[in-house]
Amino acid sequence: MRIRPASLLTRLAMPAALLMLAACAPAPIYKTSTGTVTAAPFEVAQTPEKFSGNEVVWGGRIVQVKVFADHSEIELLAYPLDSSQRPKANDSGSGRFVAVMPGYVEPLDYPAGAMMTVDGKLDGSRAGKVGEADYVFPLVSVMHSHVWTAEEMNKGRNNIRFGLGVGVGIH
């Protein structure tokens, strides 16, 4: 059986191209341990006492910031994280949580709508409201946090799209 050179080249080039695309994605920003909770905020809100004191790495879209005398609180709509721990905002939300930050944080550094990832420990929950609906917010005592820039959110993502048909893209 004879192998055509173009076929061999294709077979070698495809895995190499996939490897290069995977290598472009940034590494996770926070280390996780075996004790890191993988449950989503809405699951933790159902039985917060079961998870209290455990570490989480959660992220989402900033809803609002409240500043108090000795700490600040950032409410987030949680999203699943990608392999780089960036929130995947195109997925459905997985609940809300409150990131409790020590001291004062400047609300302008945490604008509503921005994407954020936190690393911290679960510290109970608090009853509150989302609009008129009652809601239970898991509380995360934040050790580290990162607000993602638009450039960071797109880093490592290719602009290649596969599909059938005709389409027009405007950027």
From TrEMBL:
It holds the Pfam family Slp. InterPro entries: OMP_Slp. GO terms for cellular component: outer membrane. Residues 1-27 form the signal peptide. Coiled coil: none annotated. It comes from Rhodanobacter spathiphylli B39. This is Starvation-inducible outer membrane lipoprotein. Keywords: Lipoprotein, Signal. PROSITE patterns: PROKAR_LIPOPROTEIN.
